[in-house]
């Protein structure tokens, strides 16, 4: 399957998807050619943009995601950052390569409220080797105010 064939609009099988480079796989998600991960639907975020070594998710936290103190739970923040940082690595994969997250670290720098504000989370690859990759991510609001940042290491197989 070629990159041009990914433009036709039909849903792809997993077998066809794995024949594509990672960047094309991620673009298929944006184009609706494959479904996004269920956790993104449950946690109300989606893949908005992808480029070579970069992925951006957008989402709006809901009141359902509050911790007992009335602030958006850090798990929402960590999941969004993990998704962006890992998918930035995904966008560098060659056909047939896969990956998994080895570790990640998140720093929450201000509380997130479920006030309808759109949150933007961008991951960028810092280093891509043959067997591992590192990436960084930033979670900001629409005005660019930083809420969290992180780093991640992925194993490439």
Would you write up a description of this structure?
The protein is an alpha+beta fold. It has 4 helices and 6 strands. Strands 1-2-4-5-6-3 form a 6-stranded antiparallel β-sheet. The longest helix has 17 residues, at 74-90. It is globular.
Cα-to-Cα separation, first versus last residue: 21 Å
Q: Kindly state the percentage of residues in helix.
A: 10-25%
- Counting DSSP E segments of at least 2 residues, the number of strands comes to 6
Q: In percent, how much strand structure appears in the residues?
A: 25-35%
Shape: globular
> Structural class, from secondary structure content?
alpha+beta
Unreliable spans are none
Query: Mean pLDDT across all residues, rounded?
Result: 94
Summarize the biggest pleated sheet.
6 strands, antiparallel
Order of helices and strands: HHHEEHEEEE
Strand order of the largest sheet: 1-2-4-5-6-3
Radius of gyration (CA) equals 16 Å
